[in-house]
Fold:
Amino acid sequence: MRAIIYQNQKGLSYQEIQNKRPEAGEVKIKLKSAGLNRRDLFVMDQHHSQKVFYTPGSDGAGIITELGEGVVDFKLYDKVIINPSLDWEMAKNVPAAPHILGGPSNGTFSEYSIIPSQNIVKKPAYLSWIQAGVLSLSALTAYRALFTKGKLQTGHHLLIPGIGSGVATYALFFAKAIGAKVSVTSRDEEKLRKTGDLGADYLLKTDSDWTAKMKEGKFDIILDSIGPALFPKYIDVLKPDGNLVNFGASSGDSIDLSLRSLFYPQFNILGTSMGSKEEFEQMIQFITHHKIKPVLDSVYPLIEFEQALERMKSGNQFGSIGLEME
Ligand SMILES: NC(=O)c1ccc[n+]([C@@H]2O[C@H](COP(=O)([O-])OP(=O)(O)OC[C@H]3O[C@@H](n4cnc5c(N)ncnc54)[C@H](OP(=O)(O)O)[C@@H]3O)[C@@H](O)[C@H]2O)c1
Structure:
């Protein structure tokens, strides 16, 4: 079979690799589509000086072509979506760090993928192959961050800074689906315009004085992945006892915060990463119920993976970047 391979020193290539069979508890999937995440780039950078040979890619969807021994919940030719969060079953049993498909384990930028049957769900019929293949990592992260950690409810006001991120777009859809009010920030007028079309209530330019504007209403929840560039501002606009949920560090790893500004208003600062099998299944039920579809930025044939990764590196995308296998 053919797959994208990342090798340290050599980088990425499209090559013929050995066709393996699933072991007990695994299924073999003929992939129809896969999705890119910024993580694909991080992981290659991390492994730059280590001896590795793997297929990148965390998101994907396809058809089961072989069942390993003992797999009973699925049958041949089932259409499935892959959950890239490995070895995490129940939401409350949080691992020390997420274990994610696609580096150093073999991922989805490939004609076939062998996946534990624990990590697949049936593809909802309303999603096309490409829609099903791009959503897993971001939608799962958004679901856990908003509902399990943030405890978002109908009528809450949510702030999503940096609507350019994939997770942010799902968070917007999920929050609107349950009747929450959503404000977003972006540095980019065009992204704000597109977000308005997707139903956001308040569109705030990142470099404007948006904190002064929002001081009156204040937010019940802030979903942060930007970190230090905006973190000090959150203190002015979060309601007392509000939840500040962080899942990323796009502008740096450290924040400088006065503890007094934290304990007087009794803010809850919560970290979150990916999600469990339990939450993945809940997320799929949720999007199926609300007929939520990913926003697609661009789609490339698998063989054009380099152009797809360049698009991700540019940071200009709005929505998901997908790969099609045929
Ligand atoms: N923990 C997890 O499970 C998990 C899962 C998925 C992603 N993540 C993390 O989530 C973050 C988002 O992913 P991504 O790939 O979409 O990240 P990204 O491209 O680095 O940043 C997302 C958005 O944040 C805004 N932003 C970035 N740097 C900024 C700065 N210095 N000042 C103001 N705004 C800034 C931009 O929004 P505008 O362009 O709209 O201004 C950008 O589009 C990353 O940190 C990623 O590692 C974590």
